[in-house]
From TrEMBL, chain A:
Residues 1-20 are annotated as: Disordered. This is Putative FBD-associated F-box protein. It comes from the Eukaryota. Residues 383-453 form the FBD domain. Residues 1-11 have a biased composition (Basic and acidic residues). It comes from Noccaea caerulescens (Alpine penny-cress). SUPFAM superfamilies: F-box domain, RNI-like. InterPro entries: F-box-like_dom_sf, F-box_AtFBL13-like, F-box_dom, FBD, FBL13/AtMIF1-like, LRR_FXL15/At3g58940/PEG3-like.
From TrEMBL, chain B:
One of its GO terms (cellular component) is nucleus. Belongs to the SKP1 family. Its main location: nucleus. Pathway: Protein modification; protein ubiquitination. This is SKP1-like protein 16. SMART domains: Skp1. GO terms for biological process: jasmonic acid mediated signaling pathway; protein ubiquitination; ubiquitin-dependent protein catabolic process. The chain crosses the membrane at residues 12-31. The lineage of its organism: Eukaryota, Viridiplantae, Streptophyta, Embryophyta, Tracheophyta. Keywords: Membrane, Nucleus, Transmembrane, Transmembrane helix, Ubl conjugation pathway. Signal peptide: none annotated. InterPro entries: SKP1 (IPR016897), SKP1-like (IPR001232), SKP1-like_dim_sf (IPR036296), SKP1/BTB/POZ_sf (IPR011333), Skp1_comp_dimer (IPR016072), Skp1_comp_POZ (IPR016073). Involved in ubiquitination and subsequent proteasomal degradation of target proteins. Together with CUL1, RBX1 and a F-box protein, it forms a SCF E3 ubiquitin ligase complex. The functional specificity of this complex depends on the type of F-box protein. In the SCF complex, it serves as an adapter that links the F-box protein to CUL1.
Length: 453, 203
């Protein structure tokens, strides 16, 4: 009797909600390599926690070839350093087997600098993913990256944030596919250019620059690059670098990447942007301030991107385009997203003339003042409304209702091929009333569906 | 004399080599310019069937493209394995599920980027439904995916198991998986002390 009682008790203890119905410990029976695969999906902290599950699990977490840790996860910087030293030092071989090292480090001026010895140790023919992020750190405290980093032959993904890339002579990163550089300091323009152009299979580059990074003219020359994103961020508060005060006059970005498909400028403040060999460009995002002042530069820039299929522009970019209208013809463009200030709406029809094959248009009518403006009359009908425009979405979060109605009715009345018109309303507006008014409008396209949300 | 003998030699050699000659003919007509080693590929049908035999006697016939999702099987095909492939480490029930996965993942992506994104989303939804199985099946799938070397399936199954460990206390994890705690209280205390920071819920 006692036997059966304890058996039952054991079973009840083992049964739980969700997973282990059989009560058998199948996971611990897996070979080390497979448990390691499972632990790879967890953060380092969670994997370390598994050490307490049972004797079997005591050191399994040490087998994982990934170290992903933020110094904030440990009580202090010294504990962080000793953990990493012990993790990297572990192992029967002297060489590191790490595939991925990701460290987010917050340290003070007085804390010892260890990143160099860690990178030197892991930059072996096994490392595929390196991510070093110092968070916000002032310029003087920026750590210089060791040379072993630039010759790590197996590296596929590199992220360096808030560090100093010193002077290096040779770069050998034959497998690097993606690179993300944020708010770093470079030795000079040539070294950043060398880093980018020396990576023969680099596909994805994301650069966030700070104005005082020793680079004025950035040349992005890359044979394999397909995706490029650039913006200018800020510096640390202590550095007293304020973008508003900085003089960007001599700054320039020169891009020569024949395979480039996707380009994003998001607050890229160089007044000179030149793109050569832009034949492969498919999608361009021009967000934030485009900062082009000279008319010739503007025209050349927009001509160089005139082959794209998809474009997203901020209202600042729209204002810039207004100054050089008529814009070059974007014959391949089928999707456009544009933010437009209410005062500039009058230029919208002529603007759309540059996109004769436009199929889908998303308009962001931004106006947060909610003041009543003069009525806008949109009368000119561009080619795309007559032949191709099938979808229009009006995002009008802060806009006044009369303006919205005018724009919506402009499209409803004139777009021959329109299939769907979507109008976003604010909380204050009465959906049913607006919908009724819209449906009452004469519609050029008989198959047009109007959606109000 | 040499010239007169050639026709006989030619006929003799034709007879001698005829099966291979036929294969060659078919291959030339169907698969022009394709330098394929191994006769098993020189058949007219483009969707060749592969037979897989499980440990419990069950047999499955599937398209070659589906079978090739397994690197183990693909290598066997490359090295000329022609007949049914024996898989001693996989039962019929598990293999059925594996084949279901491979069939779905053989689908090619469309030409444009939008198609790719949509197709990837749909695939992810399918994967999420596919992996809603009991514990025993998941572990058998992990072992099978590892043995058959099917990267996507191994990733999916390991991630699913990892999700049961994520954000849980060790006590909860033990309960979920039925892991017996064989530490003495002193041993457990020592392990916790070694990496105190990992067990601190506030960090």
């Amino acid at each position: 009797m006692e036997e059966s009682f304890s058996k039952e008790k054991g079973k009840c203890g083992q049964r739980s909600a969700g997973f282990s119905s059989a009560g058998e410990d199948m996971i611990s029976k897996l070979p080390d390599s497979l448990i390691s695969q499972i632990l790879l999906c967890l953060s380092t902290k969670e994997s370390v926690r598994t050490s307490v599950l049972s004797n079997r699990w005591k050191s399994l977490w040490r087998l994982i070839p990934v170290l992903d840790l933020a110094s904030s996860e440990l009580p202090d910087y010294n504990a962080f350093v000793s953990f990493i030293d012990s993790f990297l030092g572990f192992g029967r071989e002297d060489k590191s087997c790490l595939h991925k090292l990701k460290l987010v480090i917050h340290k003070c001026e007085n804390d010892q600098s260890c990143v160099t010895r860690w990178i030197d140790f892991v930059a072996t023919p096994k490392l595929e993913h390196l991510h070093v992020d110092f968070g916000l750190v002032s310029r003087e405290c920026m750590e210089v990256m060791p040379l072993s980093l630039y010759v790590c032959e197996t590296l596929l993904h590199l992220t360096l944030n808030w560090v100093s890339l010193g002077w290096f002579k040779s770069v050998s990163l034959p497998r690097l596919k993606t690179m993300r550089l944020e708010s770093n300091i470079y030795a000079n323009e040539a070294s950043l250019q060398l880093l980018i152009s020396s990576c023969p299979v680099l596909e994805d580059l994301n650069i966030v620059r700070r104005p005082d990074d020793n680079v004025k003219v950035l040349r992005v020359h890359s044979q394999a690059l397909t995706s490029l994103s650039m913006r200018v961020g800020g510096g640390h508060d202590d550095d007293e670098v304020y973008i508003e005060d900085f003089d960007f006059e001599d700054f320039a970005v020169l891009i020569d990447a024949p395979r480039l498909k996707y380009l994003t400028f998001d607050y890229e403040l160089s007044p000179s942007k030149v793109i050569s060999n832009s034949g492969s460009l498919t999608k361009v995002n021009l967000l934030g301030c485009l900062c082009l002042w000279d008319d010739l530069v503007k025209r050349k820039f927009f001509t160089s991107i005139s082959g794209v299929k998809d474009m997203n522009i901020s209202y600042d970019t729209f204002e810039i385009i207004k100054t050089i209208m008529p814009l070059a013809q974007f014959c391949n463009l089928s999707c456009l997203e544009a933010a437009v200030l209410p005062d500039s709406l009058g230029s919208l029809p002529r603007f759309l003339e540059s996109f004769p094959n436009l199929k889908s248009l998303i308009l962001d009518l931004c106006d947060c003042t909610l003041t009543l403006r003069e009525e806008i009359r949109l009368s000119f009908v561009p080619q795309c409304l007559l032949s191709s425009l099938g979808f229009v979405e009006l995002k009008t979060s802060c806009c006044g209702t009369p303006t919205k109605m005018e724009v919506a009715s402009y499209f409803a009345k004139n777009a021959v091929m329109l299939k769907k018109l979507v109008l976003h309303l604010s909380m204050l507006e009465e959906k049913s009333v607006v919908l009724r008014d819209l449906l009452a409008l004469p519609r050029r396209s008989s198959t047009c569906q109007i959606i109000v949300c | 004399a040499f010239v007169e003998n050639i026709p006989e030699i030619y006929i003799l050699s034709l007879l001698f080599f005829s099966p291979h000659f036929l294969y060659l003919l078919i291959s030339v007509s169907v698969l022009t310019m394709d330098p394929i080693p191994g006769l098993s590929k020189l058949t007219v049908s483009s969707s060749k069937k592969i037979v897989l035999n499980c440990s419990d006697g069950k047999s499955f016939e599937i398209d070659e493209a589906v079978a090739r999702k397994s690197k183990l099987i693909a290598d066997m095909i490359e090295s000329g394995c022609d007949g049914p492939i024996p898989l001693q480490n996989v039962t019929g029930k598990t293999l059925e599920k594996v084949i279901e996965y491979c069939k779905r993942h053989v689908v090619e992506f469309g030409p444009s980027d939008e198609d790719d994104e949509e197709a990837a989303e749909k695939l992810a939804i399918w994967d999420a439904e596919f992996i809603k199985v009991d514990e025993e099946t998941i572990f058998h799938l992990i072992l099978a995916a590892n043995y058959l070397n099917i990267e996507g399936l191994l990733s999916l199954t390991c991630k699913t198991v990892a999700d049961y460990i994520k954000d849980k206390t060790p006590e909860e994890v033990r309960q979920i998986f039925g892991i017996e705690n064989d530490y003495t209280p002193e041993e457990e205390e020592a392990v916790r002390k070694e990496n105190v920071w990992a067990f601190d819920p506030n960090q």
